[in-house]
Design brief:
The protein is built from 7 helices and 15 strands. It has about 250 residues and is α/β, with parallel strands linked by helices. It is elongated.
């Protein structure tokens, strides 16, 4: 079983990392792969209530790989941690199958540490469902769910549930609906759409265009008003001249 998982992990790196030159290179030189293997051992000790040994193993893995995975975290099959430095995965995090995580990603909690007693045994960290991609620098915080086949863009800060099959970008993260749902299911490096736009910038552009339309309308109304006033003045002058002439004849 262990060897089967290792083979699947190596195959996953080969499929999702174009820089992978072969199984031996992955096995001996990829810190993301090493972190996953060490975590499976630490998680086994954690599950058998050997908490101190589990923490020793996870701390050694952190020292070697610069990737911190709490031994209590639940990780599915074929997890790929690409590059890996700075990744932090909390105790109650749950990660599904075929997930890809890039460097500097945090799957963390949001509750203050002063409530540590009340937090024990509570779900504090995210659930990441199958086939999710989380881009570098992203922070997914709290007991939220990132839906199946969704994407979290680089440097996004996610504090609310992400529906399946969409992309979340920005800080705070906003959901972007994919233009092509079938294409969106394909592997997308760093989880960041290259053909989309930040929803915040999109909103600003929409507001800017609406303001331009309103300004054009105001200019038209001012022009119409000026023309109406000029026409009224001409009519007033035209009516006044004949009356003045009649008075002179009298």
């Amino acid at each position: 079983m262990i060897f089967k998982n290792i083979q699947e992990d190596i195959r996953a790196f080969q499929e999702r990392d174009p820089a992978a030159k072969g199984p031996l290179a992955i096995f001996f030189t990829y810190p993301g792969f090493h972190a996953v293997v060490w975590h499976r051992l630490a998680h086994w000790f954690w599950g058998h209530k050997l908490f101190f040994i589990a923490r020793l193993v996870s701390n050694f893995a952190r020292w070697v790989t610069l990737i911190e995975i709490h031994p209590g975290a639940e990780i599915g099959k074929r997890l790929v941690i690409d590059h890996g430095g700075g990744v932090v995965i909390g105790e109650t995090a749950v990660i599904g199958d075929d997930v890809t995580i890039y460097h500097q990603v945090t799957l963390g909690g949001v509750a203050p540490s002063v409530d540590s007693d009340a937090q024990r045994g509570q779900k504090r960290h995210p659930t990441v469902e199958d086939s999710v991609i989380i881009g570098c620098g992203a922070a997914v915080l709290g007991p939220i769910t990132v839906g199946r086949e969704s994407r979290v863009g680089a440097n996004a800060v996610v504090t609310k549930d992400v529906p399946p099959g969409v992309t979340a970008v920005g800080n705070p993260a906003q959901v972007v609906l994919p233009k092509d749902k079938e294409r969106a299911k394909a592997f997308q490096a760093y989880g960041t759409p290259t053909d989309g736009q930040d929803p915040v910038m999109q909103t600003i552009e929409n507001l800017r265009s609406q303001i331009n339309v309103l300004l054009d309308r105001v200019n038209d109304l001012e022009t119409e008003k000026s023309a109406a006033l000029a026409a009224r003045d001409d009519e007033t002058d035209g009516d006044a001249r004949p009356r003045a002439a009649s008075a002179g004849d009298a």
